[in-house]
Sequence to fold (68 residues):
Amino acid sequence: MSTNLIAIAEAARMLGVSTFTVRRLANSGELKTINVGARRLVPFSEIERVVANGAGKARRRKGARAGR
Fold:
């Protein structure tokens, strides 16, 4: 079985959020990541799961302003 792993920056682009948001989601356990040496990678299946659950672009912190 092959696991497609994606860099944090690419995951952020695919989800339409910042790299900071991807790291925050990973730190909180909402997004599973895999450490490979010094790199933190996101399995593509996690991107699919997050998109299927309606997260990503629609997700915004309470009090965050649109257009920033």
About this structure: The chain has a mean pLDDT of 83.
